[in-house]
What does this fold into?
Amino acid sequence: MEHIEQVVKKRFEVRSSRLCEFCKELDPEFPHRHPLDQMVGASRKSTASAHLTEDGYVRHRIVELNRLVSRAPRNAA
Ligand SMILES: [Zn+2]
It folds into this structure.
């Protein structure tokens, strides 16, 4: 798969990256992610777009959405 190669090329960034605190706190599946999918760029905030990988981005978005859904009042929609 092509974008796995891109991820490998990004490895040099890993040293200057850190775990996404948002996902770490809120995603129960976080420890089961691929390590790269747990990382965000060190200089960035814990946002979806700061994730180094597409999968990390998507999972972050899912966590965000689940949070919105669980907060939303039952009678919405
Ligand atoms: Zn995240």
